[in-house]
Design a protein that fits this description.
The structure holds three protein chains of three kinds. Chain B is built from 17 helices and 35 strands. By secondary structure, chain B is an alpha+beta fold. Chain C is an alpha+beta fold. Among the domains of chain C are: 203 residues, no CATH class; 188 residues, no CATH class; 53 residues, no CATH class. In chain C, the strands form four sheets. In chain C, strands 2-1-5-4-3-6-7 form a seven-stranded antiparallel β-sheet, with helices on both faces. Classes of the chains: A mainly beta, B alpha+beta, C alpha+beta.
Chain lengths: 97, 699, 664
């Protein structure tokens, strides 16, 4: 049995997690996106929604961190967070056989 | 003979009620004919003529006026079959009708849907972005011009809207109700640039503060105005062709009517047209019966409507919600409380028995109709409990299946809950009644009243089957089921018995007391406007009355209270009396000590209502008196009260009853259009007009 | 100055207490009503449903009573209040559809009152207790004042009713009790643990004076106190009648079963969802004026069978400033999301729902702070951020179920855009008002549809904003615009709802200007995250333009529609700020939208084109984020879009057309 764990990811009974768009392996149950491609760019590369430079308001670095399917490059996760902090966004599902 | 005729077009039936000066009345009913409702309108007139034993031409030539309750504007708005409207507004504020004060996401939804917040949405935009233009111009809160109107830009915008397909233009600018010069000038520019186009200005349609509702009202008015015009013009021409020489009047949500030539320019006022007939009927009947305070309950096949009459007049509201939009439309306050006989009984995920708010609607309807409905409804339960006679529903016009009703209750309620079909049905009946009492109570209490001070009127096909029970829960002392000559067409009776009602209003928010001169000149202005409009109706009135009121509030408090104001000019002590009256009214509505008087008072909106009483007021005829006890036509087992279970009940045919007859519950009265249930502990008495009046000997 | 522990404050460091423990401590001081399981088991469906419906209707009536009597715009216009019916130990049986975070900790306040007030001064019929101590419960910051009243039937404490509302000002350094410079609670309004302000049906004047004396608007606060008394009275009258008709045991049995029903149904829904854990984070920038820090709340939601555990380990320590919240605030942050995303179709009986929830949190952290940390804006700071992080965790859980995912939303409007105006109004009277325009935040995107544009806030199902005309009539201000802001909704396959902006000048005050207090984070980084590749919503953006040409523009017949048209000097306002506006100064405040859902490159191009026409997305946003190329008539250029999207797919991942790394 497998389970769609969100719009992009499917988790299989063996614990593997694949991309729903291209079936490429992206991770496993413990870390569903550990094989994903991660990039960090300046917050304003997120588009016009970020109205000002973060440096006006904060001293810590802020980054736009994106996680992509390594194969089809579908965007799996996007966050704008302090760059000196590891990502806290994480999940781990138990999928019955 | 001079007749007055009321015609009420509902989704299913078109009803007519006629009366002449001598007190003769007649009622007829025919199926409605959507989408062209005028066919049913003409048919019901033919049937009315037949009932009176005269030709249609003879009837129409003797008819002074026909008062028409129409769903055409409401249907147009609900189905979206409306004119493409272009919208002009102040620069920076076009999004007001999209933001909808954010309340547009949930306005008018039941609490079950509000709770399911993730699934709520705003309605489709009233006007697509391509048909909206913002203009440079600005008036401030005092009515002073801050930025002049950019006429060159306005002309360009108008031409663009026409090119983009606008069939009509709505104009609503900030503060236009205080200073209408920019809107009026825009009206002229539109006429110059696009001659003949339907135009509505917010300073005409709704000169009231709060731009969101004012704009929404103006836009919706503009959407339906052309449609109403296109409906009424041919209908009136057809009536003239058939010999009609009187006035065709259109009922408004305010509970009064307006001449059909005047109606399209204020089309939005007709959206409550068919809802209010019942309340007006109650008001007139209450006059005859000497009841000052009435709760009007109309439970039909698909809706449950409740309204109030207080001190002999229907309780009104100054605004309403349609398609989740807030509209400034003075209306009789008719609350839609539920799904009527079509309310579906179901077992929720927690294994609890629930009734409504989902409805089987007109299609497929209750399971017992055999039209494909499989879920049990309140009507199915009424049938199973012996209240409805399956062979005599709607006078035998509709055959009902007890088996289908039982199957629906068994499958969906009884088996899942481990109850017998009887017990399940009895529980649904009782829950429906208790819920109705809760909802009606809220209507009464939030209007600042106590249900115990009221008489309850129950009509509609299903109301009388339940009223004795929910009225008892409300601790109402007396229930009236209007039967007699009006029973089948109660709303049409209400239409025939209505008056011309015109409303004019104007916001001029200011601290109160305002200067006496400002106050009097505001009302004089409204009075003059109404006198002109009354003259336009081209009718003879028996009597014209003006009622003034002012929407007032305590500064900082939201609730504005429509406060009565004397119809003549006032001096400073008169203003002080008005303030006192407001304070008393406020406390009655919101509780003792609820007003923050220290913050001061504000007057927000002036409003005048002109009531032109029509010369013919239908009088209801008395029925013959009876002697002794009435003879039941039969007996059958009924289940009206869970505490008492199945009981033998006398079944009375209404046609066998006469004035003065008394019936003791448990009993059932079968009338041609409805069935009245009298549980044990109730006594029903037939009054001189043929109504059944229910009182309680025990609760 | 760092927060120094205060000896004696432990008594008020309240935590939820089990009914059994509450009963044990109360002992014989008050006779608590109880009902046996046999009565609950014997309830028939009819009686249950009739009484349940009536309890709902009584709660609605309480809300109506409070709302209509209140004099606070935040109550009457914005529905920032709530009402609840509780059982004899405070478990909430029914909560109103208003600000649900307010009622999330009434149970804690009632239980504390039972444990600390039953012996002295005693709890008797006709009493009502006032509380605005968020360490005890009943509200999230000191402005949330609760009033709860025991209902006695035949000498036994049968139930409690409670009403909570935000009060405009209860003292503290800055107007509105919003002390943006606060480092601890002593800068703020005084927290008041439960006091018996109504005794035997009468207000105690001494206690009321002590309460009102702290406020800049005591008359207004007094009126709201009466509104709450009225709400409780309405409920008591109707509950009395209900008990008379059906018997107290039966009514209590229904209350017990309502709690059980809510619990059972939530457990049933949870059982249908996969087990697992979801971790997320919510940030806040700036803890007080002058502070440039960034603080995080981390939450790991673990769902095991039919139980939810929210573990906040990893959350930052409490901070000098006004953004901390107490344990009541933490719970107040969780409850609104639990209600809206998991309980849209389950009765809102928090007392039952809490039984499915465990909370792990360390005292001394930013959303479980100890006395005397500053908590002046807790409700919209750390409690709100808790809502944001919990929203993401619960959304992840729901997303794994084909049906239940329809009820998830990305994070809604990431913060409250607080703008308070004070001064002298156009009629010469003093005024203090919180501008409530930002109630119209954008809601988060859903898995099947966009978030609602200017649709509200997560914690208030029925929020409302006042019309521009009412604000201009009431306060010395003139709006240049109030409009939805393009690109403020988080991009995604389904777009987050857009937020909006208001831009105004002081107008007609005899002082020429107005005083302004700003407290709105989300400027260094957006606070409403996206899901499943959806982007966060836009940032908060507040700009003050000094000495503009606005009056010259007006005179020349122009209404400026862009900040760049206004001239003057632009100050980008930090998250916390207090200043004065002059007559030619323009203030622009732009609040946030909701987060997106799914990869924006997967959004239907036609939907993007429609968004551009409707000004929900700019042409730049359409091109750069959604990869949609528009023809000159505004329709989608299909070919150009296809090729641009292919290129964007590579370039945004830092790859060139040969899939080689590009050095950024
Ligand atoms: Zn892939």
């Amino acid at each position: 049995m497998s389970l769609f764990i969100d719009d992009n990811l499917e988790q299989h009974s063996d614990g593997s997690v694949t991309c729903r768009h291209c079936s490429h392996l992206v991770g496993d149950a413990a870390a569903p996106m550990n094989a994903a491609r991660v990039t960090e760019t300046a917050p304003r590369t997120a588009g016009p929604s970020v109205r000002e430079d973060a440096a006006l308001f904060a001293d810590r670095p802020i980054v736009f961190r994106r996680t992509f399917c390594p194969e089809c490059l579908t965007l799996l996760q996007a966050e704008i967070v302090p760059g000196d902090e590891v990502s806290s966004r994480h999940r781990s599902l138990i999928v019955g056989a | 003979m001079a007749y007055v005729i009321g015609i009420d077009i509902g989704g299913t039936f078109t009803d007519a009620f006629a009366a002449d000066e001598s007190g003769r009345v007649a009622a007829t009913k025919t199926p409605s004919t959507p989408p062209d409702f005028s066919q049913g309108f003409l048919t019901v007139l033919d049937e009315m003529a037949g009932a009176l034993g005269i030709s249609t031409r003879a009837l129409l030539s003797d008819t002074n006026y026909i008062i028409h309750g129409t769903t055409s504007t409401l249907n147009a708005l609900v189905t979206g079959d409306v004119a493409a409207v272009g919208f002009l507004t102040t620069r920076g504020h076009a999004d007001s009708v999209a933001i909808m004060n954010l309340e547009g996401r949930y306005a008018g939804l039941g609490s079950d849907r509000v709770q399911d917040m993730v699934l709520t949405n705003k309605p489709a935009p009233l006007v697509p972005p391509q048909l909206i233009r913002e203009l440079d111009e600005r008036i401030d809160y005092k009515g002073h011009e801050v930025v002049s109107l950019d006429e060159t830009g306005a002309r360009v915008a108008i031409r663009e809207l026409v090119d983009a397909g606008a069939q009509a233009i709505a104009v609503s600018l900030l503060w236009s109700f205080l200073n209408d010069s920019h809107e009026r000038r825009l009206g002229e520019l539109i006429t110059e640039e696009a001659p003949g186009l339907y135009v509505a200005l917010s300073c005409d349609v709704s000169p009231r503060i709060r731009e969101y509702a004012r704009s929404a009202t103006t836009i919706m008015n503009t959407q339906v105005g052309p449609r109403l015009r296109d409906y009424l013009r041919p209908l009136e021409a057809e009536l003239r062709e058939r010999g009609f020489g009187g006035s065709l009047l259109v009922m408004q949500g305010s509970g009064g009517c307006v001449d059909s030539s005047d109606a399209p320019s204020r089309a939005i006022t007709t959206i409550g047209s068919v809802l209010t007939g019942g309340v007006v009927g109650c008001t007139r009947l209450a006059e005859s019966l000497g009841h000052r305070n009435v709760i009007s309950t109309d439970m039909g096949g698909t809706t449950f409507l409740a309204g109030l009459v207080v001190d002999g007049a229907p309780v009104s509201t100054t605004s309403t919600v349609l398609n989740q939009y807030q509209l400034n439309v003075p209306m009789v306050d008719v609350h839609t409380l539920g799904a009527g006989g079509g309310a579906i009984a179901w077992v929720d995920a927690g294994h609890n028995l629930r009734v409504g708010p989902r409805s089987a609607g007109a299609r497929p309807g209750p399971a017992c109709y055999g039209d494909g409905g499989t879920e049990p409804t309140v009507s199915d339960v009424d049938l199973l409990l012996g209240i409805i006679n399956p062979g005599n529903f709607l006078g035998g016009r509709k055959k009902l299946s007890k088996e289908l009703a039982a199957q629906a209750v068994r499958t969906h309620i009884a088996e899942p809950l481990g109850l017998s079909v009887d017990d399940a049905a009895a529980a649904v009946y009782a829950i429906q009644n208790a819920q109705t009492a809760d909802l009606v109570r809220k209507v009464v209490v939030t209007s600042g009243h106590d249900p115990r001070d009221f008489v309850l009127y129950a009509f509609g096909g299903a109301g009388p089957m339940h009223c004795a029970s929910y009225a008892a829960d409300l601790e109402v002392g007396e229930v009236v089921v209007p039967l007699g000559s009006t029973a089948a067409v109660f709303s049409a009776y209400g239409l025939a018995a209505s008056d011309i009602v015109l409303t004019a209003e104007l916001s001029a928010p200011a601290n109160f007391p305002t200067p006496v001169a400002d106050f009097n000149s505001s009302f004089a202005h409204l009075r003059a406007e109404l006198e002109d409009r009354l003259a336009d109706q081209k009718l003879k009135f028996a009597h014209v009355a003006y009622r003034n009121e002012a929407d007032m509030r305590y500064t900082l408090q939201l609730a504005e209270v429509a406060t009565p104001v004397p119809a003549e000019t006032v001096d400073e002590s008169g203003l002080a009396d008005i303030a006192t009256g407001f304070g008393e009214l406020y406390e009655r509505l919101y509780g003792k000590g609820s007003g923050f008087a220290e913050a001061g008072l504000q007057l927000i909106t002036y409003r005048t209502q002109a009531v032109g009483m029509l010369p013919i007021r239908p009088q209801l005829g008395e029925i013959p008196s009876g002697r002794g006890d009435p003879t039941p036509s039969s007996t059958r087992r009924v289940f009206l009260d869970a505490r008492r279970g199945w009981q033998d009940a006398d079944i009375h045919d209404y046609r066998d009853l006469a004035a003065g007859h008394e019936l003791k519950g448990p009993a059932v009265v079968e009338a041609p259009t409805t069935t009245v249930a009298l549980p044990e502990g109730c006594i029903g008495r037939v009054d001189r007009l043929g109504n059944l009046v229910i009182r309680y000997t025990q609760v | 100055m760092p927060v120094i522990p205060v000896a004696g404050s432990e008594e008020f460091a309240n935590l939820p207490t089990s009914p059994a423990e509450t009963r044990r401590i109360v002992g014989t001081a008050v006779k608590l009503h109880e009902v046996g399981q046999s009565v609950i088991d014997a309830l028939d469906p009819l009686t249950y449903e009739v009484i349940r419906h009536r309890l709902t209707s009584i709660t609605e009536e309480m809300g109506e009573a409070l709302k209509r009597m209140s004099g606070s715009v935040v109550v009457t216009d914005c529905n920032d209040f709530d009402a609840a019916i509780m059982d004899e130990v405070g478990d909430v049986v029914q909560v109103g559809l208003y600000n649900t975070e307010l009622a999330a900790s009434l149970d804690m306040a009632v239980s504390w009152t039972l444990r600390h007030r039953a012996a002295r001064p005693g709890i008797a019929p006709g009493d009502m207790f006032l509380c605005n101590d968020p360490w005890v419960g009943g509200g999230l910051h000191q402005n949330d004042v609760s009033l709860f009243a025991p209902l006695f039937i035949d000498g036994e404490l049968f139930a409690w009713t409670g009403a909570v509302a935000h009060q405009v000002d209860l003292g503290g350094v800055s107007p509105g009790s919003w002390s943006v410079a606060a480092t601890d609670v002593f800068w703020e309004s005084v927290p008041t643990p439960p006091v018996k302000i109504v005794e035997n049906g009468e207000i105690r004047d001494d206690i009321e004076d002590m309460y009102l004396r702290r406020s800049r608007v005591p008359k207004l606060v007094a009126l709201d106190l009466r509104a709450k008394i009225g709400a409780n009275n309405v409920a008591h009258e109707r509950l009395h009648a209900l008990c008379e008709k059906y018997g107290a045991a039966t009514v209590k049995a229904v209350m017990r079963r309502v709690l059980k029903d809510a619990e059972t149904r939530l457990r049933a829904k949870l059982s249908e969802l996969p087990d697992g854990s979801w971790t997320s984070v919510a940030h806040q920038d700036s803890a007080r004026s002058g502070d440039r820090g960034i603080y995080k709340i981390v939450c790991t939601l673990t769902k095991t069978r039919d139980t939810l555990t929210f573990d906040f380990t990893g959350t930052d320590p409490q901070v000098d400033g006004l953004i901390n919240c107490t344990y009541a605030g933490l719970r107040g942050g969780i409850m609104p999301v639990l209600l809206t995303t998991l309980c849209g179709d389950i009765p809102w009986a928090p007392g039952g729902l809490y039984r499915c929830v465990e909370i792990i949190s360390e005292p001394g952290t930013i959303n479980n702070c100890t006395f005397p940390s500053g908590i002046g804006k807790a409700s919209v700071a750390s409690a709100w951020a808790t809502t944001n992080v919990v929203t993401e965790c619960l959304a992840g859980l729901l997303d794994a179920h084909p049906e239940h995912r329809k009820r998830l939303m990305s994070v809604c409007c990431g913060t409250w855009d607080f703008a308070l105006l004070a001064g002298v109004d156009q009629r010469g009277g003093g005024f203090v008002t919180m501008l409530c325009d930002s109630m119209a935040g954008g809601l988060g995107a859903r898995t099947h549809s966009d978030g609602v544009d200017t649709g509200g806030l997560a914690c208030i199902p029925m929020g409302r904003v006042a019309d521009v005309e009412m604000n201009e009539f009431s306060f010395p201000m003139l709006y240049l615009w109030r409009r939805e802001e393009a690109d403020s909704g988080g991009p995604g396959r389904f777009r987050g709802g857009v937020g909006a902006s208001s831009c105004f000048i002081p107008y007609d005050s005899p002082l020429g200007g107005v005083h302004l207090v700003v407290s709105a984070p989300g400027k260094a980084l957006p606070l409403a995250g996206g899901l499943a590749g959806g982007l966060p919503a836009g940032t908060q953006h507040d700009v003050l333009l000094r000495s503009t040409s606005v009056h010259e523009d007006f005179a020349a017949g122009r209404i400026p529609a862009l900040l760049s048209e206004l001239g003057g000097e632009a100050e980008v306002i930090p998250s916390h700020h207090e200043t004065d506006l002059g007559s030619a100064d323009v203030y622009f405040t732009h609040w946030q939208g909701g987060g997106g859902y799914g990869d924006p490159l997967l959004r239907e191009p036609g939907a993007v084109a429609a968004d551009v026409i409707a000004h929900k997305v700019s042409v730049t946003g359409a091109h750069d984020v959604y990869g949609v190329v528009l023809a000159s008539d505004g329709t989608v250029d299909q070919d150009a879009t296809t090729s641009h999207r292919s290129a964007l797919r590579l370039s945004r991942a830092g790859l060139d057309s040969d899939r080689q790394e590009v050095n950024a």
